[in-house]
Amino acid sequence: MKNHGVARMALAGCLAATLTGCGVLGELAADQAVITASQPFRGSPAEKFAEGIGGIVVPEARPVKNFSAKDVRSAFLTSRRMLGAAHLDRRTLLGGKPEAFAELLDAEQRKFFLRDLDHKDQKKNTRSWVTSFAPGSAELVGEAVKVQGKMAAESAVDEDGGPQLRVNYEARFVYALRPAAKSGPIVRVMVYVKARHEFWRDEPGARLRNWDGESVEFWSAGTECESPDGFLRPDYTGEGGGGGPVDDAYDDKAAPLKEGECGTVDEV
């Protein structure tokens, strides 16, 4: 195999890594009275998002340099499935083993992912490749996760100069959560990811392989700032420790968080 890197950059949650951070609810947080079990997204911009994987828009597939429209279409659908497995699979979300995501990885990357899953060394821990709430810390309210995402294809070359197809994607996933004990407030948590998937062939006519590529930006809002293990923990109190100016979690123009920074958002 040509060198596509060992693994994607692990940037999820609140781990100290480039362009990573988490936001906690600020003083202007949504009134908890409007976040109900029957309408958990009422009053939030996420209310208008599509539900589940339907929120990831797959564009029309067109040929991209060395790759046919059929290749591009296949890459789009694979990327969509990987996003669903990483951020929507219920078992993974509740802290279980992310088997659905692992099954979609290239065999070489899958071996690495599973080897370092829940590694004690947080620089190696691959749990942060997916969205997982700490076991026992949360349960989903209702069946819906609100999603808004898009993707686009571009031509690239790998480190050896070989042709590569990249699917660049950007997505917001908004979850309604409450404590697993079912006592306590219902809160909304957002996970934002901007990254890419890489596709290539080892030789002409061979099957299209895929790789979970490097992240550009990956953060959560409405979570506690510290994560010792790669799992997210909803901030049920609004006192997660964020600082700095209050940002809008839905604003695409907001400046990205710096390494290890924990910002503050006014509403999810």
TrEMBL record:
Q: This protein's superkingdom?
A: Bacteria
Q: Give the region (Disordered) as residue ranges.
A: 229-268
Question: Biased composition, Basic and acidic residues: where in the chain?
Answer: 251-261
Q: What is this protein called?
A: Lipoprotein
